[in-house]
């Protein structure tokens, strides 16, 4: 894998408040949030990341014009020299306490999936890619980030990443979720070389940004056809990426729980008949607010094996687990033996909306108690080695298998294909 330094295009912090202009990734912004971001600041990154309603078309040239205007006005400025850019994110963990994740921004040489250097973990949709491709054509800039995970169990890059803050941060922002984002420059050549050497022999997994990455591949192929003499080192052969250690203390792989939307909750006999070989225990947890703590105490210890908890809102929380056979992936076992085996929901039914996917146990517990679902199904998180093992075999994970925290905001760094002299 080939990682490059670049001259970031960044907000001039004498002209904007960084906390007021950064925004979440475009694909998690609701229509109401989009309007709020537009009103918050005239230079909000929302104006170049998501200036239109989701699903609408057009306006791509307007984004390019806005980007050019902000550069002329000095709102956005290129750094004078190339670097890698360290990012330190400080946030409250879901279970309490403070965590810190450190990673860095750099340019990644684009690789086809077939080479197994850059590995996807989920499928993509045509619509979002078409939208991002039009935006990329119009702006010739990477406005949002592809989030990549690498394996560094011994934290060999920790010292190199910390060097980015030796001279203090370039800027610090706090987002609406209370996450603090501190940006630094990794200028030290030794640190840059250490990062490049370490990653040169390792694959990465796309955590977030599959549509952005595949859009960059499509644009690369398009430009190579139009510019056959450009070689393999043209600006369109690279894309802006963020790299984080999958085993870092602050890199969280969290489960996405399921809520079966309709149908009667299975009774004792049904659970027993349809889950042969599984063990069960149950506890009384009537209040939704107590469910996360109960899961931490009773479900989490079974994280190395197929396991889940079921909650029909009656106050009875069931914990199920069984032995792991070989290297089977727990989330696949869950879909095969529970979603299909117990509830009779195949992939087609899931695609048609038979399941909801709340990203917190509390939300799932509240939904079933409010009648917004029949049964909540709580999962343990995947381990990093599961993600690398599955993607290394050229496979993808089942839909909504995991999500990664903290998310990356748009607006800390941008990258243009043409840098000023």
Description:
The strands form 5 sheets. Strands 1, 4, 5, 6, 8, 9, 10, 11 and 12 form a 9-stranded mixed sheet that branches. This protein has a 6-stranded antiparallel sheet with strand order 15-17-16-19-14-18. The model has no long low-confidence stretch (mean pLDDT 94). With 421 residues, the chain is α+β, with helices and mostly antiparallel strands. Helices cover 30% and strands 23% of the residues. The longest helix is centred in the middle third of the chain and has 17 residues, at 210-226. The chain is globular.
Summarize this entry quickly:
With 421 residues, the chain is of the alpha+beta class. It is 30% helix and 23% strand. Helix 5 (126-139) packs across helix 8 (210-226).
Largest sheet: 9 strands, mixed
Helix count from the secondary structure assignment: 14
Given the C-alpha coordinates, what overall shape results?
Answer: globular
**Share of residues in strands:** 15-25%
Unreliable spans: none
Overall mean pLDDT stands at 94
According to DSSP, the number of beta strands is: 21
Layout of helices and strands:
Layout: E1 3-4, E2 9-11, H1 18-21, H2 31-40, H3 46-49, H4 60-72, E3 76-78, E4 84-92, E5 98-109, E6 118-119, H5 126-139, E7 141-142, E8 146-150, H6 158-162, E9 171-174, E10 180-186, H7 189-200, E11 204-208, H8 210-226, E12 238-245, E13 252-255, E14 258-260, H9 268-274, E15 279-284, H10 291-298, E16 307-311, E17 316-321, H11 330-340, H12 347-351, E18 355-356, H13 361-369, E19 375-378, H14 384-392, E20 402-405, E21 415-416
Parallel strand pairs: 6-11, 8-12
Antiparallel strand pairs: 1-5, 2-3, 4-5, 4-10, 5-12, 7-21, 8-11, 9-10, 13-20, 14-18, 14-19, 15-17, 16-17, 16-19
Helix pairs in contact: 4-5, 5-8
């Amino acid at each position: 894998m080939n990682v490059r330094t670049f001259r970031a295009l960044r907000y001039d912090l004498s002209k904007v408040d960084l906390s007021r202009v950064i925004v979440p990734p475009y694909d998690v912004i609701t229509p109401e949030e989009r309007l709020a971001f537009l009103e918050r600041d005239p230079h909000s990154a929302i104006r170049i990341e998501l200036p239109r309603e989701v699903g609408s078309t057009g306006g791509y040239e307007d984004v390019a014009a806005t980007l050019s205007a902000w550069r002329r006005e000095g709102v956005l400025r290129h750094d004078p020299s190339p670097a890698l850019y360290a990012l330190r994110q400080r946030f409250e963990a879901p279970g309490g306490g403070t965590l810190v994740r450190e990673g860095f921004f750099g340019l990644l040489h684009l690789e086809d999936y077939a080479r197994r250097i850059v590995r996807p973990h989920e499928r993509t949709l045509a619509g979002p890619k078409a939208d991002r491709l039009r935006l990329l054509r119009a702006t010739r800039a990477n406005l949002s980030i592809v989030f990549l995970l690498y394996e560094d169990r011994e934290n060999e890059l920790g010292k190199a990443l910390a060097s980015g803050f030796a001279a203090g941060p370039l800027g610090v922002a706090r987002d609406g979720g209370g996450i603090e984002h501190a940006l630094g420059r990794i200028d030290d050549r030794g640190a840059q070389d250490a990062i490049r050497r370490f990653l040169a022999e390792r694959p990465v997994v796309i955590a977030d940004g599959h549509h952005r990455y595949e859009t960059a591949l499509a644009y690369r192929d398009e430009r190579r056809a139009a510019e056959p003499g450009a070689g393999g080192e043209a600006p369109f052969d690279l894309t802006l990426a963020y790299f984080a250690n999958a085993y870092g203390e602050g890199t969280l792989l969290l489960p996405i729980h399921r809520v079966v939307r309709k149908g009667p909750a299975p009774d004792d006999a049904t659970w027993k008949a349809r889950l042969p070989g599984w063990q069960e225990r149950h506890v009384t947890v009537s209040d939704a607010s107590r469910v996360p703590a109960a899961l931490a105490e009773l479900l989490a210890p079974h994280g190395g094996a197929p396991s889940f908890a079921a909650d029909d809102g009656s106050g009875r929380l069931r914990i199920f687990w069984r032995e792991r056979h070989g290297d089977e992936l727990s989330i696949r076992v869950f879909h095969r033996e529970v979603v299909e085996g117990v509830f009779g929901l195949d992939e087609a039914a899931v695609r048609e909306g038979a399941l909801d996917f709340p990203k917190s146990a509390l939300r799932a517990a509240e939904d079933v108690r409010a009648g917004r679902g029949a049964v909540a199904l709580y999962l343990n998180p995947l381990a990093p080695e599961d993600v690398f093992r599955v993607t290394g075999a050229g496979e993808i994970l089942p839909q909504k298998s995991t999500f990664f925290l903290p998310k990356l905001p748009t607006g800390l760094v941008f990258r243009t294909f043409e840098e000023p002299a």
